[in-house]
Design brief:
The complex is a heterodimer of chains A (about 375) and B (about 475). Chain A contains twelve helices and 17 strands. With about 375 residues, chain A is α+β, with helices and mostly antiparallel strands. Chain A has three domains: about 170 residues, Uridine Diphospho-n-acetylenolpyruvylglucosamine Reductase, domain 3 (2-Layer Sandwich); about 90 residues, Alpha-Beta Plaits (2-Layer Sandwich), CATH 3.30.70.2190; about 70 residues. In chain A, the strands form five sheets. Chain A has a five-stranded antiparallel beta sheet. Chain B has five domains: about 100 residues, Uridine Diphospho-n-acetylenolpyruvylglucosamine Reductase, domain 2 (2-Layer Sandwich), CATH 3.30.43.10; about 120 residues, Uridine Diphospho-n-acetylenolpyruvylglucosamine Reductase, domain 3 (2-Layer Sandwich); about 110 residues, 2-Layer Sandwich (Alpha-Beta Plaits); about 90 residues, Alpha-Beta Plaits; about 40 residues, no CATH class. Helices cover about 40% and strands about 20% of the residues of chain B. Chain B has 19 helices and 18 strands. In chain B, strands 15-12-14-13-17-18-16 form a seven-stranded antiparallel beta sheet, with helices on both faces. A five-stranded antiparallel beta sheet of chain B has the order 5-6-10-8-9. In chain B, a hairpin with a 4-residue loop joins strand 17 and strand 18. Chain B is globular, with a radius of gyration of 23 Å. Classes of the chains: A alpha+beta (about 375), B alpha+beta (about 475).
Chain lengths: ~375, ~475
């Protein structure tokens, strides 16, 4: 089914007597689901873009590339740096705006500016009963009623099928610099990243590879802005981190790990693309990260968000959560066939709330049933 | 503003309710004397007052849980209260309610600079969160004007903003986790020292739910290192259109100031008298602040001044000293109290797309003439959050009603141009009956369904946010 209007979508959901598998671009098959395919492909197009107000509104089926091209023409961007899952998951097709929002997809800059959910201003959607609901709007500050915008973002279509979203965008930057440290042990590297993120120099990326492309450990800190500012901050960070080694600085580099390509490598967990095994994404307290990684029993790990995000490659079927034990955070199985919950089980009091919410918004349980378990 | 009639069944049992609460709380944490409960009869929306049945001041999560369990069992409504600084009547009691004040819960539980968070009890004031970490060079970013007094609990309830949220975001963007007690006494932890939710973003819907879903007792907040420095520049223009264009041009040039504040002619005069900041006489004043090292500030301000100069400013002046910078901000931050010295006023909080600014200001001017009440405008221009201040005389019969009618028309205009009723103050009782202007019945139904999940009996702050007619079937059930 491929509705071409919101009203048509509402009618399809209201009259459906079977589960619906909601599809954006089909590039992020995270979580398991079943049912008849319902595509948002025709709910497409940018309806409003005001560069001076940093606001864009578009249909959920709009290809992300179309949005990014429109923004680039005005020298703006989606600041939360959404990951491209295609290489890692071996998918094809074109990511959509709605798919990105439904999965709350962010990248390395999330540590500095926030996640996709932090840039969401408004949604229109159709719930499991076929009712059209709107929440939020197109302005940056809005506390009128409950924030369903956040609730819908990252709900994988289980509370409603998105039809239109509005987002805050930010100016693109003049240039980028990367400060790189070599040969650090994981715990030392994360301490260095914490020092950088806890400085006034506004790092917009903080990653560590225990084993980089070049074989040795590589720790990367990104700074962005006007060129003079980036150069200044890079020097300041090198001074700040002198106890961790003699940092290498790349400003405006066009190739190598310090260039945009290096941060794309971080963003897309590209090191695990052609490696067999399951891939896990673990959100944790940065200072716990090295200990957690050591307990995982993984084949390889890499850190983003200053240690707050661990990507892990494990043997197929390995129960990573059991290996870690209890911790402040959660682990999601992004790629794998193991018979394990894809999403981290919630504590009972919270699980009661989330199942209550699902029952309200999708009483018949037909929207992507089971995808978030 | 209509409030539901108190339950006679609850009022008749006041003694038993107080006695049961005293069983689970320290005796001095239960306030039932009528002279003392009067302290809780209103918040900063002082036009409306009603003493509660009683007030309780629990000291920790366990006491909140025990007290809510009692209220739940006895069917007693509860109104949570932070510091009582709500401009929307968010903490206004009903005669049959228990006010649950979080003021005693003001401790710091944990500070962690490596992981950049602080965990506090929710009664701690906004400014004292920064106070707890500033010796290490850190701060908590959301900065509502009431930050000296307002509690984190209230900030979370209203998803409060501030002048610097263009760069740093509002409460929801700086809140990592909460411990919350639900109406039946269940304690739930949501989020923590890590980022993003494992499943549904329940934290996202708790923030801004105006104390209707639960009582937040502890909060994990993101802290940031202070910038090396900050400096404002003042620019005056002879029309709102031009000032609006300057804001748009600055943003389009790829510069993201930490704050862009707007004041109209009336506020400029009042604030100048109050602070002696040296504001120019003109129709529209912008305060634009940037952050960084001295050299970075110079560079950004040079770019901003180049843009500003193209639009023929009446005045274009950079703060030459920390003292001058402080006075420039003191004038803006004192806007409400400066107006308060000359008149009673009602502060609105609608948000509009920045491009609609000149049109909206023109219409507000016309309405001011029509209603015969003066109005001044301060405005977070970078994010479109307006604060029209409507002047009235509280001692003149009928003036408040005229003021409210004027305010309602301004807020309808904000929605009409693509904005919203409230940008950072919340709905409370003040904008409750205007919710239907912004939302269809189905939109409100979806929001009320969320409350059904957290508080099925509708006992928590139930007469707020939703028009009484919309929530009536649930409250009566």
């Amino acid at each position: 089914m491929t509705p071409s209007t919101e009203a048509e979508l509402a009618e399809m959901i209201a009259t459906s007597d079977e589960p619906l598998r909601i599809k954006g671009g089909g590039t992020r098959p995270i979580g398991r689901t079943e049912g008849q395919e319902l595509s948002t492909a025709k709910l497409s197009g940018i309806s409003l873009y005001e560069p001076g107000a940093l606001t864009i509104v578009a249909g959920s089926g709009t290809p992300l590339s179309e949005v990014e091209a429109a923004l680039a023409a005005e020298n703006q961007r989606l600041a939360f740096e959404p990951m491209d899952h295609r290489p890692l998951l071996g998918t094809t097709g074109a990511p959509t705006l709605g798919g990105m929002v439904a999965a709350n997809i962010s990248g390395p800059r999330r540590i500095a500016v926030g996640a996709c959910r932090d840039f969401m201003l408004g949604v229109r959607c159709v719930d499991g009963a076929g009712t059209i609901i709107k929440n939020g709007g197109r302005v940056m500050k809005n506390v009128t009623g409950y924030d369903l915008v956040k609730l819908m973002t990252g709900s994988y279509g289980t509370l409603g099928v998105l039809t239109e979203v509005s987002l805050k965008v930010l100016p693109d930057v003049e240039t980028m610099g990367t400060v790189m440290l070599h040969g650090l042990r994981d715990d030392r590297a994360i301490a260095a990243l914490s020092a950088a993120l806890g400085s006034p120099f506004e790092a917009t990326g903080a990653a560590h590879f225990p084993k980089s492309k070049f074989g040795e450990p590589l720790t990367m800190i990104r700074i962005e802005g006007f060129e003079t500012s980036v150069k200044y901050r890079a020097e300041k960070l090198r001074d700040l981190l002198k106890n961790y080694g003699d940092a290498e600085i790349a400003v405006g580099a066009t190739e190598g790990p310090g260039a945009a390509e290096g941060w794309k490598w971080v963003r897309d967990a590209a090191a695990f693309t052609d490696q067999p095994g399951d891939v896990w994404r673990v959100s944790c307290k940065p200072s716990d990260a090295a200990g957690i990684a050591a307990r995982m029993g993984a084949k390889a790990v890499q850190y983003d968000w200053g240690g707050g995000l661990i990507w892990a490659l494990t043997e197929a079927g390995h129960d990573l959560r059991a290996a870690i034990g209890a911790f402040d955070g959660h682990a999601t199985l992004i790629r794998g066939t193991a018979d394990l919950p894809v999403f981290h089980p919630e504590a009972p009091a919270l699980a009661a709330i989330t199942s209550g919410l699902r029952a309200k918004f999708d009483p018949r349980g037909i929207l992507n049933p089971g995808i978030m378990t | 503003m209509e409030m539901p009639a108190p339950s006679t069944h609850v009022l008749a049992r006041k003694e038993q309710i107080v006695a049961r609460l005293k069983e689970v709380l320290p005796t001095n944490a239960v306030i039932s004397d009528e002279n003392q409960t009067r302290a809780y009869e209103c918040d900063a929306l002082t036009a409306y007052k009603c003493p509660p049945l009683c007030a309780i001041l629990p000291a920790n999560t366990a006491e909140v849980s025990a007290a809510l369990k009692v209220c739940h069992e006895m069917g007693v409504p509860v109104v949570p209260r932070g510091s009582g600084t709500s401009l929307a009547g968010g903490a206004l009691p009903t005669a049959d309610c228990v006010i649950l004040g979080v003021a005693k819960m003001n401790g710091v539980i944990e500070t962690n600079y490596a992981d950049r968070y602080i965990k506090v009890q929710s009664g701690r004031t906004n400014l004292s969160v920064t106070g707890a970490v500033e010796a290490e060079g850190f701060f908590y970013a959301p900065d509502p004007s009431s930050q000296l007094a307002c509690a984190i609990a209230g900030n979370i309830a209203m998803n409060s903003g501030g002048a610097h949220c263009l760069k740093y975001g509002v409460t929801t963007n700086n809140l990592m986790g909460v411990t919350m007690v639900m109406m039946d006494g269940t304690i739930v932890d949501v989020g923590g020292a890590h980022l993003d939710a494992a499943g549904l973003d329940v934290l996202g819907v708790i923030c801004g739910s105006e104390g209707q879903l639960g009582v937040v007792t502890e909060a994990t907040l993101r802290i940031l290192h202070k910038p090396e420095g900050a400096r404002p520049v003042l620019m005056g223009y002879d029309s709102a259109e031009t000032a609006g264009q300057v804001v748009s041009d600055i943003i389009k040039a790829g510069i993201l100031p930490v704050a862009i504040e707007y004041m109209d002619e009336m506020l400029i005069g009042v604030c100048e008298e109050f602070s002696g900041a040296g504001y120019p006489e003109c129709e529209a004043l912008l305060i634009v602040e940037v952050e960084g090292s001295e050299a970075e500030i110079d560079d950004q301000l040079a770019r901003i001044k180049t843009i500003a100069a193209k639009h023929n400013p009446v005045e274009l002046r950079e703060a030459q000293s920390p003292d001058e910078a402080a006075r420039i901000w003191a004038g803006r931050k004192a806007a409400f109290s400066a107006i308060g010295k000359i008149s009673d006023y009602m502060c609105l909080d609608g948000t509009i797309p920045v491009s609609s600014l000149p049109y909206v200001l023109k219409r507000i001017g016309e309405m001011s003439k029509h209603y015969g009440l003066g109005v001044g405008n301060v405005f977070h221009a970078g994010d479109g959050n307006m604060h029209p201040l409507i002047l009235y005389d509280a001692n003149k019969p009928g003036d408040l009603e005229i003021c409210e009618a004027f305010g309602a028309e301004v807020l309808k205009l904000c929605v009409e141009v693509g904005g919203c009723l409230t940008g950072e103050h919340g709905v409370g009782i003040e904008k409750r009956d205007l919710m239907t202007v912004q939302y269809d019945p189905a939109d409100l139904e979806a929001q009320m369904a969320i409350k059904d999940v957290f508080d099925p009996d509708w006992l928590l702050n139930a007469a707020k946010v939703f028009p009484l007619a919309s929530s009536e079937p649930r409250r009566a059930a």
